[in-house]
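subagent[fold] <- orchestrator: predict structure for attached chain, return tokens only, no commentary.
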Amino acid sequence: MKLETERLILRPVEEGDAPALFHIMNDPDVTANLLMSPPFPEDQVIAWIRNRREAWEKKERFAAAVVLKETGELIGTCSLMNVSWEHMNAELLYWLGKPYWGKGYMTEAARRMIRFGFEELGLERISVGCFARNKASARVIEKLGFKYEGCARHEFKKGDEFLDNMHFGLIRAELTRNP
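subagent[fold] -> orchestrator:
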């Protein structure tokens, strides 16, 4: 499977992605707004990739490497996770290497992943969350057409800090209004 946009290719993560993922996953600026925290040794990154590949084959999670078309460089990931075939829904998750922030790449990648979820997987709903402090991610989510559904106060604990998590949702019928 390969999904394309104007500037990007989204494809399943593979073991050859380990060096690029190692660099991104060990950047504290990237992981500051994720539940995961560095350090991640290379063998742990490879295990992460293998886990995501197996989940893709089982249709439980679709973790895509986000790759620049022009250079072939992996710049992040965009996934549909926690897929429920019973309820026809999934959760969007993404992260991007710091040098690529603010260039519209994640909006472009996530928009394609959302279309994959609705049009190719037949999902009815996709949800996404972000920490309340992550204003950049909230802007991406709003550009994608997600509707704000509420904030769960102190939903997660990272280190010694409790974090508020904003919840958003998008249903299939709203996709045509937000291409």
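orchestrator: received. Logging for downstream: The mean pLDDT is 94. The helical segments are 18-25, 28-31, 42-57, 105-120, 135-143, 172-175.
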